[in-house]
Amino acid sequence: MLNLKQILEDHLLWFSSNKTKGKQADLSNQDLSGTNLAYANLANANLIYANLTGANLIGANLTYTNLYYANLANASLYNAILYNASLANANLAYANLANANLYRVNLENANLENANLDKANLAYANLENASLENANLKDANLTNANLENVKGVQVFKCFYVENNEKKFNYFFNSTKAKKEMSKRLANRQCSWVEQ
After folding, report:
1. What is the reported pTM?
2. Which of these, 14, 136, 166, 188, has the minimum number of CB atoms within 10 Å of its CB?
C-alpha cells in the first residue's frame, strides 16, 4: 500500500536538506487519479507514467519534476509551479493550467487539447509537436517558446536578425504579431512563415 503522506514528508525533508536527509519521491507508474496534492512540494520528484487524472495540484511546486508520459487529463494545476519540468508526451487534455508557471517546461509531443492556459507563463517552453486544439491560450506568455509543428492552432513565425544573430518569434494572431514585431524591429524586416 502506497503511503503518500510519508512519501511527501520524506521528499520535503530531502528537498529542504539539499538532498542530505529524507528521500526523493518516486511516484512513477503510480495511480494518483483524483488525489489532492494542492500546494504539495514535489520539486525534482519522479512522476514518469504517473496517472494524475483529475488530481488537484493547485499551487503545487513541480519545479524540475519529471512527468514524462504522465496522465494529467482533467487535472487542476491552477497557479502551479512547473519551472523546467519535463512533460514530454504527457496528456494534459482538459487540464486547468491557468496562471501556471511553465517557464522552460518541456511539453514536446504533449496533448493539451481543451486545456486552459489562460495567463500561463510559457516563456521559453518547448511545445514542439504538441496538440493545442481548442486550448485556451488567452493572455498566455509565449515569449521565445518553441511552437514548431504545433497542432490545432494557426501559428505565424517571424524570422529576423538582431545584433547579427538570427532570431524568431511565434504568434497566433497575424495582426497582433505584425504590430508587435514592427514596434520591436523598427525599420528592420521580418520574414513571415505561416504554419
Report:
1. 0.87
2. 166
**Position 130: which residue type?**
A
Longest CA pairwise span in the chain (Å): 65
Helix (H, G, I), strand (E, B) or coil at 174: helix
Per-domain boundaries in the chain: 31-153, 154-195
* DSSP assigned state of 103: T
Using CA atoms, how far residue 106 sits from 60, 72, 130, 174, 190, in Å, is 17, 15, 10, 25, 27
Looking at domain 31-153, which CATH architecture does it have? Answer: 3 Solenoid (2.160)
Q: 180 by DSSP, 3-state: which?
A: helix
pLDDT in tens, 132-181: 999 999 899 988 899 988 999 887 777 777 788 877 777 766 566 666 66
